Amino acid sequence: MDKNINQYLPLTESTAYILLALKNPLHGYGVMQKVEAMSKNTVKIGSGTLYGAFSTLEKEGLIVKVGEEDRRKIYTLTKKGQDVLKEHILRVEILVKNGAMTKDW
Amino acid sequence: MTTIKKFHWFWAWDDDKQENWLREMSKKGWHFTSVDMLSNYIFEQGNPIDYTYRLDYFIDRKDMPAYLQLFQDAGWHYLGEMGGWQYFRKEGLNGEEPEIYSDKESKAKKYQRLMLYLIIFFPIYSIFMRILSQSNTGIMQVLTFFMFFFMLVYVYAMVRLLIRITSLKKKI
């Protein structure tokens, strides 16, 4: 596997959801709302956490700024971001398969 | 509008204590409005409300508008700044306290930013102290003594912050 991708894995649950939400361009608060809805309220992202995640992910080149609306920066996934997310999901799928037995407990 | 001024000292790594104190004051009907460099807090009287207060350390002037906009969108009311500390509040719903940091990793980064600031200023401060200590006049010696005392506090603050960061980063 690509070594470049491996260095970002595993993603935290919050980061994985932020990347999923950025499949289409969104601003910060949009991401927070979308993540809450997608995760059925199991994942809530604070504004400080989101602000930090945006700067880190932008620096790493996983997301890119595509616009700005009234002081709200709009980001979307890059190709690199897609690759990292895809690899992370593959890993989680393996985890879920292994964890299937816990349903009988 | 009735206001009161209260002095209360908090260490930088005890920001949760400060947040709790402000919340308790609001429950009694005293709502925080501002704080100065000498730790004098101003409160305004009103109806008791269960406000959750949160402090963030943020000094990126250029990105401040975007930063504040995000907090505002998320329902945080911005109260102001004191030495890089940004004060926010939000009404807690059903006794639940809203958070600005939803995981430990990102909360640790808040203290890392403060730590970085202290590290950058440490050499500047040291040089300043060295210049001062070369003077022999009485008043300068007194000043040097105070500066030395302040330096000890400075180092102590760095150690305590480091402990806070490490404890947040500890995983199960």
What does it look like?
The complex is a heterodimer of chains A (105) and B (172). Chain A is of the alpha+beta class. Chain A contains 5 helices and 3 strands. A 3-stranded antiparallel sheet of chain A has the order 1-3-2. In chain A, strand 2 and strand 3 form a beta hairpin. In chain A, helix 2 packs across helix 3 and helix 3 (28-38) crosses helix 4. Chain A is globular. With 172 residues, chain B is an alpha+beta fold. Chain B has helices spanning 15-27, 64-73, 104-133, 138-169; strands spanning 3-7, 30-35, 40-45, 51-57, 77-82, 85-91. In chain B, strands 1-3-2 form a 3-stranded antiparallel sheet. The longest helix of chain B is centred in the last third of the chain and has 32 residues, at 138-169. The N and C termini of chain B lie far apart (49 Å). The model of chain B has no long low-confidence stretch (mean pLDDT 89). Chain A binds chain B through residues 12, 14, 27-29, 32, 43-53, 68, 70-73, and chain B through 54, 56, 65-71, 73-74, 76, 98-103, 105-107, 109-110.
Percent of residues of chain A in beta strands?
5-15%
The most extensive interface between chains reads:
A-B, 22 and 23 residues
SSE pattern of chain B, N- to C-terminal: EHEEEHEEHH
- Please give the radius of gyration of chain A in angstroms: 15 Å
Estimated structural class of chain B = alpha+beta
Order of strands side by side in the largest beta sheet of chain A? 1-3-2
